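cron nightly-structures :: item 1 of 1
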Amino acid sequence: MGMLTGYIIYFKKTPPKVSGIVNLLLWITSVSIIFGLIFGVWDGQLSVPATAVYVSLGHTAWGAALIWITLSCYWGYSPFINNLLSYRGIHPLSRLSYCAYLVHPVIMMITSFQLEAPIHLQHGIIITVFFGNAVLSFILAFFISLLLEAPVIKLLKLAFRNK
């Protein structure tokens, strides 16, 4: 889906004419797909066919929803969302998010392996563990980014700079 979006952006030099109603309907569809994928399985008790559909189509549907969000921002149909996503204040967080994504399963495993007995999950415990793991993931991601990602990016810029 990402390559399709890149292909459209590269070869479609002028944005297509999209009416406000069509833009709104595409946004509603995209957001509905995303929220449906996140919150649609809230109960966690899906039948075998429903699980098969969710697992086989979920990632594709997520990518399809992101296609319109990306194209709408790129073509200027959603300036508010584009400004929000392009805000310089969240730029450092965006650089850390992938590293945090890679680190957080390790932190979750370490946390769960340190439990000596089963715990009864309650909302307070879930929230505390979530925020603890999230903060620790971003702290660790910051240091990994400083030690690995930033030097490699600097070296790549030096190696491939225009002369």
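cron nightly-structures :: done
The CA atoms of residues 104 and 110 lie 10 Å apart.
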